[in-house]
Amino acid sequence: MRSFARTPRLALLAGALLLAGSCGDNLGPEETMVLNGTSALDGFVYIGADTLAHTNGGGPAIGDLDGTIADLHVRQFFSFDLTALPDNAEVQIAELRLNQAAATATSYTELGNVLVDHMDYGASLDTLDYNRTALTAAYGTLSTTVTLGVKALTVTTAVQADRNAGRTRSQYRIRFETSGNNDGTSDYAQFTDGEGSTPAPDSLPRLVIVYRRPQ
Ligand SMILES: [Ca+2]
Ligand SMILES: [Ca+2]
Q: Cα separation of 40 and 123, whole Å?
């Protein structure tokens, strides 16, 4: 239901842009491309007693796992291949859609909201990416609640920046505002990765891009 609730908003925005665009510019009609996440590049990174980067399924999560290992923190990463977009496409709207498949009951009250960092972590995911300097840190808030389902964030300027810089991927890191609290109880959420390896992998990672091309 949540994913349906998001769709009209995008359609509404797209409609507004279409009206604006009809006032004399030389751009063609809106076109929409839905990009799936690149599963080989999405995954999670632990830091702490068990530092590792994992891209092949497993147990993706953000938050802390200190119920198992003291002060072990984890973040998730997502990557989208932009090369299918036409070279002359002018991005009008882009929306990141990630499925929250699980969350511990007090994860948000203890660690805060889920933030998105706009990243360039390149052609591999490694342990340095946990703390790698973002292109834009705290680009936006993806989720404020344990409620499961698809969470959406408008990332138009991030995708436009990727295109302007000639990057072939649009990449994101998600994390809680507080990385972890080392309270002896694991506090985490799980967002579905490209392999669909979380519980309830109903919706895989998506980047929806509305663009127009010169006529
Ligand atoms: Ca993966
Ligand atoms: Ca904890």
A: 9
Rounded distance from Cα 90 to ligand 1 centre (Å): 29
For residue 60, give Cα distances in angstroms to 104, 114, 178. Answer: 14, 15, 18
12 phi, psi to nearest 5 deg: -65, -45
Mean pLDDT within 128-146:
98
Range 196-203 average pLDDT: 83
What are the tokens at 124?
Answer: 């591999």
For residue 77, how many C-alpha atoms fall within 13 Å in the half-sphere facing its CB? 33
Query: Looking at the chain, how many residues does it have?
Result: 215
Nearest to 106 by CA among 3, 192, 5, 184: 184
pLDDT at res. 199 = 82
| Ligand with an atom nearest the CA of residue 188 | 2
- Ligand 1 centroid to Cα of residue 10, in Å, is 27
**Which tens digits make up the pLDDT trace of 24-66?**
589 999 999 999 999 999 999 999 988 999 999 999 999 999 9
Distance 142 CA to ligand 2 centre (A): 21
DSSP annotation of 7: H
Distance between Cα 185 and ligand 2 center (Å): 4
Q: How far is the CA of 125 from the centre of ligand 1 (A)?
A: 10
